[in-house]
Amino acid sequence: MAAHLSSGRVNLTALREAGRRELREFLDKCAGSKAIVWDEYLTGPFGLIAQYSLLKEHEVEKMFTLKPGRLPQADVKNIIFFVRPKLELMDIITDNVLREDRGRSPQRDFHILFVPRRSLLCEQWLKEQGVLGSFIHREQYSLDLIPFDGDLLSMESESAFKECYLESDQTSLYHAAKGLMTLQALYGTIPQIFGKGECARHVANMMIRMKREFPGSQNSIFPVFDTLLLLDRNVDLLTPLATQLTYEGLIDEIYGIQNTYVKLPPEKFAPKKQGEGGKDLPTEPKKLQLNSAEELYAEIRDKNFNAVGSVLSKKAKIISAAFEERHHAKTVGEIKQFVSQLPHMQAARSSLANHTSIAELIKDITTSEDFFDNLTVEQEFMSGIDTDKVNNYIEDCIAQKHPLIKILRLVCLQSVCNSGLKQKVLDHYKKEIIQTYGYEHILTLNNLEKAGLLKSQTSGRNNYPTIRKTLRLWMDDVNEQNPNDISYVYSGYAPLSVRLAQLLARPGWRSIEEVLKMLPGPHFEERQQLPTGLQKKRQHGENRVTLVFFLGGVTYAEIAALRFLSQMEDGGTEYVIATTKLINGTSWIKSLMEKLEPAPF
Amino acid sequence: MDCYTANWNPLGEEAFYRKFELYAMEWSLKEDLRDCLVAAAPYGGPIALLKNSGRKEKSPSARPLLEIYSASGLLLASIPWKSGQLVHLGWTASEDLLCIQEDGTVLIYNLFCEFKRHFSMGNEVLQNHVLEAKVFHTEYGTGVAILTGAHRFSLTTNIDDLKLRRMPEVPGLQKPPSCWAVLSQDRVTIVLLAVGQDLYLLDNTSCSVVTPPGMSPAAGAYLRMAVSFNYRCLALFTDTGYIWMGLSTLKEKLCEFNSSIRSPPKQMVWCMRPRSRQRAVVVAWDHQLMVAGNSTECIQFVLDEDSYLVPELDGVRILSRTSHEFLHEIPEASQEIFKIASMAPGALLLEAQKEYEKESQKADEYLREIKDQKLLPEAVSQCIEAAGYEHEPETQKSLLRAASFGKCFIDKFPPESFVRMCQDLRVLNAIRDYQIGIPLTFTQYKRLTIEVLLDRLVLRRLYPLAIRICEYLRLSEIQGVSRILAHWACYKVQQKDKSDEEVAHAINQKLGDTPGISYSEIAARAYDCGRTELAIKLLEYEPRSGEQVPLLLKMKRSKLALSKAIESGDTDLVYTVVLHLKNELNRGTFFMTLQNQPVALSLYRQFCKHQERKTLKDLYNQDDNHQELGNFHVHSSYSEQRIEGRVGALQNAVDAYYKAKNEFAAKATEDQIKLLRLQRHLQEDFDKPYLDLSLHDTVSNLILDGHHKRAEQLYREFKIPDKRYWWLKISALATRGDWEEMEKFSKSKKSPIGYLPFVEISVKHHNRYEAKKYAPRVTPEQRVKAFILVGDLDQAADAAIEHKNENEMNFVLSKCTASTDVAVVEKLNRARAQLLKK
């Protein structure tokens, strides 16, 4: 069920197990039958830790979504609220509790499970509403880092970037630090910490502090990670804006992957059975889980989309050849062997069918003229062409009222690739956007400016070309089929963040001091002392393990690039990736938009 | 050593008892013990004496004196007794002294005579007074049982969770029982009492008469009873000098003895050891001590002095004015080794080792004898075990030496038991020292556990010894040293004669960063003692902000709490303090405080955004943050339900944006106000919704509805760029299907967007006919695409050939179908070939 988590260099099943244990312990505290009332946002992440079956084993009989009003009827002994510590949610819970029928018997016991942390503020709030006493157990469930795959952890904290960079609310960084402490408790103290950016600095400080808070708990686990690299998203604002060109990246760009699941238009997945041709097409979207448990997906997810087709057709040949085998099976033994392999083969065949369909869906889009034009402009910007003047394509797109987020992505990309736009150019774009999409977006534009995604070039100096050249962010001779550099994930652009990780491993950041100074925030190195018994004596040829933590989000293309580095034969470093949230340009910009709905006149 | 067994007294065939001195008492008592109320705590605990208690009537001026001594007779503390008449003293399991007054009030003191608290045994007791009282220990804790003047029993099984129980009445009871005891059977506490020749059992609800099995009818009236340490055994002494010994369930008799002493004994207690089959009681009269068990003989000792018996888990302690002795049954291992002419392996091993020391060859003979029987491991174990039972370090050592010697001749003898015994004995010898005065036996020590022993040392404020023991036993710091240091520090903060600085410094010096130390707990204690400044100083050493902050808030040091909360990075903690401050301070001071703490300020802003939008405005105002103020007004304008309100709020935003020198935002907002006003007119004029559309959509809707003039007017007024206006207009016209107007528009002047958009939009609206009109006007570079869009492959081919552009040719070719476009394909192929030739 969770085999994919143990496939990587670091066995993340242990983390998932720790999470499950904690959950079970809590559920068992509330003896008797239970109903869970869910903060809806939590259901997705929870699904990665425990399925319904686990809850059911612990007498969870009903599940509801948290909403105001009276709680649904359910003949259970316990009502447990699973919520994030947010005041808005506390108001809803208060409403639920106050409307509970006091006369009903037997009475139901209330409990709250705060995820990921119990909050004094919320409890104070509940106290003021006079309902705090109604809760028998008020506990926390430290679900900070959720294992998504064998090398991938995410906090799934949707608004982390916005909170950190727009609102100076560093709550998510505190959770990140806590999550890292949990990780260290399970996988040993990480001896080296590197970081770049204000948030990275803050997280590292908190980690050191937290370690001091528990001086006695000397960790006696042999360290699994050699290095932790903390990276602020605002050190590299560029990468998420560009369209990802890996298979997984494109699925996310086009359909959006939520907690490893994707919903796809059903037409292409219609069952192709004879005699049923006349039946209706399915109308429910097709829901698929995407992770490395699926052999084929693990192979193609990180490839450039242009290299996926050939793999799929090769696979198709192998599988049909395998099915052909049955004609050659003569003896009973051979038939038996064939039959024993059948389930695996059938799984492979259905996996292939699914991905062929997905690839077709994506191909329809990537071959469209508009996709091509958009990509061309992106690539021009990234390679430094005409970034300083108003771009025709963007203007045309606005004039034709293309989706606003697409426009914002492009304008921000241009701004970032030019270290800010000339005031005149910036104002022109802003005016165009406000006139076309409406005045209410003035606040969104302001947010983008605050986050540094849009800015006017005040100092007059454009650092981007220097950064691009020093870090070799643009590679003209990209090889999409058999890549030799991370730039394949964006067909030419090498993600800055991943380049920083790569250069840290070899030859070290000292070689790029100048560029690091141009990027925002401090860069630093910390060492955590290990007892002599735990110091690693590295075997010759043994790879180092680095945990790269993206504070503010990471894209699938960046993950692909890091995986590519892990697999490089002479790389010497394997990467595990952690982040506050898995993002793409669209979801990222969306999180920064101000939602203003006019009151009806 | 030769006379080692000199003080062994046989009882029956198998058992030996010995009595030896633990301490010569240091207390130099003037009074006789019989004149004092005495209470000695089990497990070698302290001794409480209330002097002069009996002489109250004779000299009312002489107050009784309450004194507490260690088991070796060192005075721990004393106070003059000023409260009411005391009936009984007893010790709790945690070594607190219970002083039971005649009126049923129970006062609790610690072993330094410091008053802790009191409780009452209830009204009934108050009215009828306490006749007798007993303190007892069960699995529920320490209990108190009272016999009142009305000859009724009241009891509680746990003084820390006081639940008073009044036992049922004994029918026809006119005088106090001659003796009684508290029994604990199957978790039920019951009272057994004797009146004359009758025994009564009181449980929660009923009173029943019981008869011990095998009790001789001629035994006579009961005078004394004794319950064993573990509540399993009961002994009854009658006025014929007969002693019945049996199970306390009264279901079985174990043995009996006839002492032929008819005077009532002063005390009778059991003397047993766990896991031994021997049962015996010790009975004390004024000058005589008797050990009686399963034998017709008994052991008798003469008592030179008035003595007091303290039953223990594995024996009896005997207190007198000058000495403190221990009487116990010799354990089997010791018997085996030391019994005269014993050939047990342990005895031989001890002998072998002695010979070895004398460098005698006999050592080898003895060893051989043990080894031949393959009993060497047993011999070693026996010596180790026996060492534990010895009080004299010399004897312990010789036994351990023998064990160590024997070990050498065994392959892989596991060393743990030996090492542990050495360690345990060192600890025991250390605490048995008369200055410490805790005469624990090995058996008691194992039952008590090291943790409880450490607690007891802490209670006696023997911190250094406790720490030495922890270090010596290598207990984990959290379990051992830290706990003790924390206790020490909590004691230290109560020393009022030292300054805050001194105390804080002294505590930090000692405690440093010892793991498991909670400075906040110590600080809380200091605060409880009224030493707030000291508490704050101590909190400085606390690394966990989660612990610091609540206490600082409690001590009303909110600002300090705020900076600590911020340091921690825990935003929830910051919020907690901020909201606390909000309630505590007036608004102005509150804002000023936040001003100096940007982290707290931004968090409070977040809070206001969701909970108190009005306050948000005040915050921005105070900061002169005009940009955010402008945004605030824009935000609130959208919740205005009337257009005037909306415009008003936006006007505020304009002002704020100007102040923020954000000209763009100010202008854009002014434009929006203008647009809103215009839209209202449009809405009125055309009776269609226009409000809240973007400028683009407004113009587009106007064109869709054919109001070209009004559209034109907006285009000019808002300076819509030509390019965008052209795009907008042709899309709208195409949507409307107004191809005539579109053509007219295309000819109105030269298109700033070229003519390809005309083609594209017409095609998009499935009007190829119109599209074709514009294809020729498209610039040469885009013409091929235009012709392909309108489906004119032939012309597309011509255009491509004209450009001599191979890519374009290929593109056209890719659109051709072999069957229908033969001529075009041929033409293109020819041109391509020609191109390649060059």
Automatic annotation (TrEMBL), chain A:
Domain of life: Eukaryota
Protein's UniProt name: Vacuolar protein sorting-associated protein 33A
Keyword Transport annotated: yes
Membrane topology: Peripheral membrane protein
Organism per entry: Apteryx mantelli (North Island brown kiwi)
Record-linked SUPFAM superfamilies: Sec1/munc18-like (SM) proteins (SSF56815)
Family per record: Belongs to the STXBP/unc-18/SEC1 family.
Localization, UniProt: Late endosome membrane; Lysosome membrane
Main location as per UniProt: membrane
Name of one Pfam family that matches: Sec1
InterPro entries named among the record's database cross-references: Sec-1-like_dom1 (IPR043154), Sec-1-like_dom3a (IPR043127), Sec1-like (IPR001619), Sec1-like_dom2 (IPR027482), Sec1-like_sf (IPR036045), VPS33_dom3b (IPR043155)
Keyword Protein transport: yes
Keywords recorded for this protein, A-Z: Protein transport, Transport
From TrEMBL, chain B:
Segments forming domain Vps16 C-terminal: 517-834
Subcellular localization, as worded in the UniProt entry: Late endosome membrane; Lysosome membrane
Entry keyword annotation includes Transport: yes
Gene3D superfamilies assigned to the protein according to its UniProt record, in alphabetical order: Vps16, C-terminal region (1.10.150.780)
Keyword terms: Coiled coil, Endosome, Lysosome, Membrane, Protein transport, Transport
Sequence ranges assigned to domain Vps16 N-terminal in this UniProt record: 4-420
Membrane topology reported for the UniProt record: Peripheral membrane protein
Coiled-coil residue spans: 349-376
Domain of life: Eukaryota
Pfam families: Vps16_C, Vps16_N
Membership in a protein family: Belongs to the VPS16 family.
Task performed by this protein: Plays a role in vesicle-mediated protein trafficking to lysosomal compartments including the endocytic membrane transport and autophagic pathways. Believed to act as a core component of the putative HOPS and CORVET endosomal tethering complexes.
UniProt name for this protein: Vacuolar protein sorting-associated protein 16 homolog
Organism: Apteryx mantelli (North Island brown kiwi)
